[in-house]
Amino acid sequence: MSQLDPAGKVRVQWSLYPDFNEPTPWRFQLHVNYDGDPENWEPVGNAVEDTFYVEQPLQLARFKNLLPQFKVVLIAAKTYDSLETTVLPKKLALIGQGIYRRLLLERSFLPRPKGILLRRKTSGQICTSCADKFGKQPLQSDCTTCYGTGIIGGYWKANTDNLGLLSEDVSAAAITQMGHIDPARRKAIIVGLPQPTPGDIWIDSQTGRRYRVRTVAVTSAIFDWPIVVQAELGLLAPKDVIYQFPL
């Protein structure tokens, strides 16, 4: 999945099949094809390690009448090419930008916190410290090898750039019928990439609080390209092992 902004930067997000478990490190290299020739793939920027998306500048002057094509090359024990993807045509991209502007105008009262998204790993080597070796189920909630995911590392490396949310008010904690305390919830509106999935972690840059992504729903899309996503985030207790994840 990829998006291109007017300044000429492309942001590409990828994911791996759940059964991919080659030994790490895994290095990802973004490639671009400017003219449609299947032989003319060029690397863009430097390869990144242990992350799930990248943002790189492009040479806009080289675009002809074709949309640029992108792929990600994974370098592990073997080399793998991803499926090819492209960006929205200019007309549709302008529609997407218009949706975003209207959203900002209509919800100008909402806070816009900055934070970091940690993508939960769903593929990789099974945790050697605590996981069930058959089902990848973690057996210790406080394991700092897998951080409760059952997979070594737990989450993809945190990105250095802060991502913005349109965030609705945090609701007060509620007590369920069984007497359990439900952590405070926050509804967040996320535009563009990277996009979260349930189980990911959102870290508020100002407070350092960690929220787990509970639900995700696409609220605006253009031909299956998600433009706006609404997510429900649940606040995690300070004793949760995710607060020990190195940023």
Explain this structure.
The chain is 7% helix and 34% strand. The protein is mainly beta. The chain has two domains: 2-87, Immunoglobulin-like (Sandwich); 103-120 and 155-244, Elongation Factor Tu (Ef-tu), domain 3. The strands form four sheets. Strands 11-10-16-17-18-15-12 form a seven-stranded antiparallel β-sheet. Strands 3, 4, 5, 7, 8 and 9 form a six-stranded antiparallel β-sheet that branches. The protein is flat, with a radius of gyration of 19 Å. The chain starts with a strand and ends in a 12-residue tail after the last strand. The relative contact order is 0.15.
Descriptive terms for the model:
1 helix; mainly beta; Elongation Factor Tu (Ef-tu), domain 3; Immunoglobulin-like; six-stranded antiparallel beta sheet; 247 residues; seven-stranded antiparallel beta sheet; flat
Q: Alpha-carbon distance between the termini?
A: 25 Å
Question: What's the overall average pLDDT, rounded?
Answer: 83
Task: Report the CATH architecture of the largest domain.
Answer: Beta Barrel
CATH topology of the largest domain: Elongation Factor Tu (Ef-tu), domain 3
Structural class: mainly beta
The total tally of domains equals: 2
Order of helices and strands: EEEEEEEEEHEEEEEEEEE
Strand line-up of the largest beta sheet: 11-10-16-17-18-15-12
Low-pLDDT sequence parts: none
Helix content: under 10%
